[in-house]
Automatic annotation (TrEMBL):
<feature type="region of interest" description="Disordered">
    <location>
        <begin position="64"/>
        <end position="90"/>
    </location>
</feature>
<keyword id="KW-0677">Repeat</keyword>
<feature type="repeat" description="PPR">
    <location>
        <begin position="219"/>
        <end position="253"/>
    </location>
</feature>
<feature type="region of interest" description="Disordered">
    <location>
        <begin position="525"/>
        <end position="548"/>
    </location>
</feature>
<dbReference type="InterPro" id="IPR011990">
    <property type="entry name" value="TPR-like_helical_dom_sf"/>
</dbReference>
<dbReference type="InterPro" id="IPR002885">
    <property type="entry name" value="PPR_rpt"/>
</dbReference>
<protein>
    <recommendedName>
        <fullName>Pentatricopeptide repeat protein</fullName>
    </recommendedName>
</protein>
<dbReference type="Pfam" id="PF01535">
    <property type="entry name" value="PPR"/>
</dbReference>
<feature type="compositionally biased region" description="Basic and acidic residues">
    <location>
        <begin position="81"/>
        <end position="90"/>
    </location>
</feature>
Length: 814
């Protein structure tokens, strides 16, 4: 309900306006009942100016009473009455009206003083683009600087200008081409400039003492350009001469000039020259960039080993409270993770958390991505990856530290979850991929994180490990679509993609089982051409037919259909043509490799017959002489070992051929890790035992023990000083340990066998009553077990070896 004062004010304004315009007069009968006394008085005053009905009950006979013309009014009475009526009409609005007018004036003044911001559509769009923009990538940051070609052209122009300027200042005897005193004209531009500057300094100075006042011959930019020209021409002598001349002129050596020379030696892994330049031209403590180059020189010097000397240099800088930059720690961590050694990988995790204690508490997105990617190949557990640790780091990066992820970050966490083979984590990987595509868009609605080749490879990794062939085929179609619509993204069907696809076919479990199918009479069976459960040979013939139709929308329902699709894909790869779910899929970028052939063979090992697999194996690796590796022989022997009882004799023949090829491969220096070697021998020994050729199995076991004796397990490499488990707060090693000495697996254990590996041989010997054979098998197993126990005890008791003192240089301030 409105306040009474406001209501009276409104009615008064209406009455006043109606009296002025001559409109219908509002009487007291038309007002609401709850009206103030003053409003009634106004109505009475206003009604005096209008005709009045004297007798309402005599409606038809009443007459209007008018004032007589002869009547006279006192002088001034009329004017006084008008003034009273006007005052009475304005009286209820006076107080409230003044208040309203005051408020309007205040609001008007505020509108005049406040400057309301106005934005155009372009400005608003630019604002939202900045707000919704993704994290700046390293490539975008590099694009802001000059490209190497542009920098090279700029340096050449600057050096030529310096040459022309100095040429005009040269004495005539040095300009005369016929003069014997013009040797500097025979050199390149950069050497001529250095010769001229040297002669000018000889004229001005005596000896090598620096002047009291710097002598400016070249600007800092010109000196830097000259040094870069010398380095591009691989003339390091002239580059160092430039530094000495700058030092002789009294000019403070710019850090950029020194770093150009240091970087050249660091990239080559020349530690001694790198340290010589630092000692000769750096005054005081090295900068972050110089520390980084110094440590990188040690990394280049040991590319495939644990960088003990580089870590010693890093901790030496820390002891001087001269903490290196975060990118230096990142380079060391990446290097140690790339080394195929569990000790080096454990040291990488230790250094990551050590850095957060002593130097940089919050890593950047690149280092977080590196560590999440390391979880995909974890050595701490027997599983293929560590999804829990990866998701913890992901949450810490994106939520706790509010660091925007990158495409590489999403790829790393997706790959880690996908490699587990656990459906729970594989589904989490696909959820993260969906979040990457749907939850991040820019101001124009475009994808902020565009999937690249590694994204699709990570998703294929998860799909194949759970045997989801339908999803694998869908991902293959998506890769083909992106490669056609967005070729700039670099997404294509290559050898690694097809390797994952063939692995998915091998892991796929078709729903149709011949054993549960109803058996019909021969007269009731359909023709062989219409039988969906054709034999492997029939499907193989169909697969190589040119008129073979494309894939169906549903996944294969039987093993024969699985092999038919795999052969169709491999046939198209050999033809180097396009294939599809639609005709746009192309395999032109797929190169035949050993791992691609192994993955294709795995489909036949899983779903085909052993005869067909043997024929394909010999066609590829014997007739065509394709490349092979240790995995080739291991998978073939394991297929023979798991053969059906009716295939055992054929499996023995095929296994003997494969093992003979393996012996030739091993004798020729073929690369194979210890675990693969022992699996190959174990598979062949078990195959011989299953076919009841016990004498051959025992002979093979004796040959294995002779080549890899148990005593070899007792010898282990020395323990690095950085892996010391002594608790100290200072020293040249990390302050924290993520894994104890017992938790870090040993990557240097030679091949060995345990009882579970040759239990089949033991059982067959027991059945045959061969006491000597039983005793020998027990002796071999116990010998290897004892050697492993001794190796473990010695590893726990081993004392660390001190780091090489020769790797350190004098880092004290001059």
């Amino acid at each position: 309900m409105l306040p009474p004062a406001l209501l009276e004010f409104t009615l008064a304004r209406l009455i006043h306006r109606g009296s002025i315009l001559g409109s219908e007069v509002v009487t007291a009968r038309t007002w609401p009942r709850r009206i103030g006394v003053r409003a009634m008085q106004q109505a009475v005053l206003v009604s005096d100016t209008s005709p009045v009905t004297l007798y309402p009950h005599l409606k038809g006979k009443q007459t209007l009473v008018k004032p007589s013309q002869g009547s006279k009014k006192p002088k001034g009475v009329g004017h006084l009455k008008v003034r009273e009526e006007k005052a009475a009409a304005e009286r209820p609005r006076s107080e409230l009206a003044h208040r309203v007018d005051a408020l309007l004036k205040v609001a008007q003044r505020e509108e005049e003083t406040v400057d309301h911001p106005t934005f155009s559509e372009e400005e608003l769009l630019s604002l939202y683009e900045d707000i919704l923009a993704g994290p700046e990538t390293e490539m975008e940051r590099q694009q802001e600087d000059l490209t190497p070609e542009q920098r090279s052209l700029e340096d050449v122009e600057m050096v030529e200008a310096v040459y022309e300027r100095l040429r005009e200042q040269t004495l005539e005897e040095y300009l005369d081409p016929q003069s014997s005193k013009a040797p500097w004209l025979q050199h390149a531009y950069h050497r001529r400039i250095l010769d001229q500057v040297g002669k000018l300094m000889d004229l001005v100075l005596r000896g090598d003492d620096a002047p009291l006042i710097p002598i400016v011959t070249l600007s800092i930019q010109e000196w830097n350009a000259l040094i870069r020209i010398c380095i591009r021409k691989n003339d390091l002598e002239s580059a160092e001469r430039s530094l000495r001349l700058m030092k002789r002129t009294g000019v403070t050596l710019p850090e950029e000039s020194i770093n150009e020379v240091v970087k050249f030696y660091a990239d080559k892994g020349d530690v001694s020259e790198t340290e010589r330049i630092l000692n000769s031209f750096v005054l005081g403590a090295p900068s972050d960039r110089q520390q980084h180059l110094h440590i990188c020189s040690h990394l280049r010097a040991s590319p495939d080993a644990m960088p003990t000397s580089a870590l010693a240099i890093l901790h030496a800088y820390e002891e001087q409270l001269n903490m290196p930059a975060q990118k230096t720690y990142t380079s060391l961590v990446k290097h140690m993770l790339s080394v195929k050694d569990s000790t080096s990988n454990a040291q990488a995790w230790d250094l990551f958390y050590h850095m957060r204690y002593v130097a940089h508490p919050v890593p950047d997105a690149f280092l977080y991505t590196t560590m999440i990617r390391a979880c995909a190949s974890s050595f701490f557990t027997i599983r293929a990856s560590e999804p829990e640790r990866a998701l913890d780091l992901w949450t810490e990066m994106t939520i706790d530290n509010n660091i925007a992820p990158t495409v590489a970050s999403y790829n790393a966490v997706i790959l880690t979850c996908a490699r587990t083979g656990d459906k729970k984590y594989v589904h989490e990987a696909f959820r993260l991929a969906k979040e990457m595509l749907d939850s991040h868009r820019d101001a124009h609605g475009e994808l902020l994180y565009v999937p690249d080749q590694h994204t699709f490879l990570a998703l294929l990794e998860g799909a194949k490990r759970i045997g989801d062939l339908s999803r694998t085929r869908w991902i293959l179609a998506q890769i083909s679509r992106v490669s056609v619509e967005e070729p700039s993204l670099g997404v294509t069907i290559d050898e690694e993609v097809m390797m994952h696809v063939f692995h998915a076919y091998a892991a796929y479990d078709p729903p149709f089982k011949r054993g549960i199918a109803l058996l019909l009479e021969e007269s009731q069976t359909a023709p062989a051409s219409n039988d969906t459960s054709t034999t492997h040979q029939e499907s193989s013939d169909v697969a190589v037919t040119p008129n073979t139709p494309t894939f169906a929308h549903v996944a294969p329902q039987s093993r024969a259909e699985v092999i038919a699709e795999a052969e169709l894909l491999f046939g198209r790869i050999l033809e180097d043509g396009g294939f599809s779910f639609d005709p746009t899929i192309s395999f032109s970028n797929v190169k035949l490799s050993t791992r691609l052939l192994n993955s294709y063979l795995s489909v036949h090992y899983k779903h085909g017959t052993l005869e067909a697999a043997r024929k394909l194996f010999l066609d590829l690796f014997v007739d065509l002489d394709m490349g092979r590796n240790a995995r080739t022989f291991r998978e073939a022997l394991e297929r023979c070992m798991y053969s059906h009882q009716k295939e055992r004799q054929f499996a023995l023949e095929f296994g003997g051929e494969v093992f003979k090829m393996w012996q030739e491969y091993d004798a020729s220096g073929g690369v194979a890790d210890a675990r693969t070697v022992e699996k190959i021998h174990v598979a062949y020994i078990r195959l011989l035992a299953l076919t009841k050729d016990l004498d051959a199995a025992l002979d093979q076991l004796r040959a294995f023990v002779a080549k890899y004796p148990p005593s070899a397990l007792r010898h282990q490499p020395a323990k690095p000083g950085l892996r010391s488990t002594k608790t100290v707060l200072t020293g040249s090693r990390p302050l924290v340990r993520m894994a104890s000495a017992a938790e870090v697996p040993d990557s240097h254990v030679p091949p060995f066998v345990l009882f579970r590996d040759i239990d089949v041989l033991h059982n067959r010997l027991v059945a045959s009553g061969d006491v000597n054979g039983i005793a020998y098998v027990k002796y071999v197993c116990k010998a290897y077990e004892w050697a492993l126990r001794v190796r473990r005890d010695e590893a726990l008791k081993a004392k660390p070896v001190d780091a090489e003192s020769t790797a350190l240089i004098d880092l004290e301030e001059d």
